[in-house]
């Protein structure tokens, strides 16, 4: 089991790049395996928003081993070729430690900025964008003719450090099946329970059902490759034995990454630092 931290890039001191960078350093020192940021641009949860890509660059300079990335990026709100450059550059800056969490997104961050906001096309656009990302990361000259994106004889160098491509983890709401079928084609799945609040999490039974479905949608070749099965969870942080037992229950149903879901509802980032400094409950 590996353990990560995920925090918002918005709302109060969660948008403070200096504090976030310091906390990422402290998380690595405490033994966490990953540190991830939400990816919002104009937020309904507060006026303070930090750019996650600039934050990740700063975090990469203050850490040495911990995995870094977004959890998750609404890819259809971004130009895939620009995102491909950003992620590849970060992968070099971090010496191959970037994970790209992706989702279809939606809501005010599309509507208020007059982005295309047809929810029926989000998944289709995301699928095309993910294909473009991996084609661009190949380092070859490529052309692409899709329904939503077109490219003519372009080449992106340097390639990412991680080959054949930066790991892509797909987020989605369970029990919706379509995002889970998409996740089965990539490098990891990050399910979120339907209608759960920021302080709730899926049960081990629900998580196990989701992972079994994802696996049933994978080819034998994909099943034989490393794959991240993520629990978006919350530890109590008071009783280490209780937390270790909770993690073990999720590990038994196939979880191999525990991502600690931290938001302002659990306190400010300053207030939550002591919890992060404790490190994960199992090493």
Automatic annotation (TrEMBL):
Domain Luciferase-like, chain residue ranges per copy: 1-201
UniProt-listed PANTHER family: ALKANESULFONATE MONOOXYGENASE (PTHR42847), ALKANESULFONATE MONOOXYGENASE-RELATED (PTHR42847:SF4)
GO biological process, one term: alkanesulfonate catabolic process
InterPro entries: Luciferase-like_dom, Luciferase-like_sf, SsuD_RutA_monooxygenase
Name this polypeptide is given: Luciferase-like protein
Pfam families for this protein: Bac_luciferase (PF00296)
Gene3D superfamilies: Luciferase-like domain
Lineage of origin: Bacteria, Bacillati, Chloroflexota, Ktedonobacteria, Ktedonobacterales
Keyword set, alphabetical order: Flavoprotein, FMN, Monooxygenase, Oxidoreductase
Keyword Flavoprotein in record: yes
Keyword flag Secreted: no
A GO MF term: alkanesulfonate monooxygenase activity
């Amino acid at each position: 089991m590996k353990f990560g931290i995920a925090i918002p890039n918005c709302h109060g001191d969660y948008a403070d790049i200096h504090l976030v960078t310091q906390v990422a350093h402290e998380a690595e020192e405490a033994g966490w395996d990953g540190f991830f940021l939400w990816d919002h641009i104009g937020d309904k949860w507060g006026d303070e928003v930090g750019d996650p890509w600039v934050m990740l660059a700063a975090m990469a300079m203050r850490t040495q081993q911990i995995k870094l990335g977004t959890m998750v990026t609404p890819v259809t709100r971004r130009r895939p070729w620009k995102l491909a450059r950003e992620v590849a550059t970060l992968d070099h800056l971090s010496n191959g430690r970037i994970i790209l969490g992706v989702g279809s997104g939606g809501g005010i961050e599309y509507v208020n900025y007059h982005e295309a906001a047809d929810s029926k096309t989000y998944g289709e656009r995301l699928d095309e964008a993910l294909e473009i990302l991996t084609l661009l990361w190949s380092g070859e000259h490529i052309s692409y003719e899709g329904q939503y994106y077109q490219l003519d004889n372009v080449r992106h160098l340097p390639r990412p450090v991680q080959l054949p491509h930066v790991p892509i983890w797909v987020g989605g709401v369970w029990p919706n099946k379509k995002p889970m079928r998409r996740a089965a084609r990539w490098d990891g799945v990050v399910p979120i329970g339907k209608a759960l609040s920021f302080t709730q999490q899926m049960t081990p039974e629900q998580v196990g059902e989701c992972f079994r479905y994802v696996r049933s949608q994978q080819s034998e070749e994909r099943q034989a490759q490393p794959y991240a099965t993520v629990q978006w969870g919350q530890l109590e942080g008071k009783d280490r034995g209780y937390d270790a037992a909770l993690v073990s229950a999720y590990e038994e149903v196939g979880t191999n990454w525990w991502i600690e879901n931290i938001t302002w509802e659990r306190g400010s980032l300053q207030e939550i630092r002591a919890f992060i400094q404790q490190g994960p409950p199992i090493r």
